[in-house]
Amino acid sequence: MLTARRFVVIGHVQGVGFRMFAADAARVEGLSGWVQNRPDGAVEVLAEGDRDAVQRFEAKIRRGPARSQIERVIVDDDTPSGRSFGFTIRA
Description:
Elements: E1 2-12, H1 18-29, E2 32-37, E3 43-50, H2 51-63, E4 69-78, E5 87-90
Parallel strand pairs: 2-5
Antiparallel strand pairs: 1-3, 1-4, 2-3
């Protein structure tokens, strides 16, 4: 079943390789979407794909890369687009 989720990851998540970590994790799971830094210091992620793959991805970003410190992850369901557009790192 196709699903999409938007994540806002709060904590020490910028300047620690979080976007690359998330992109690599998404590619391993075969997900589409994007990751970007937010002006408030959080990182925002949109991931779309198979429900089980999105759940595995969520578990990975809740841990984050070694240098990150995750304080909280806000998760919202989104509407899947149904398009496979790869996973990108936004500036």
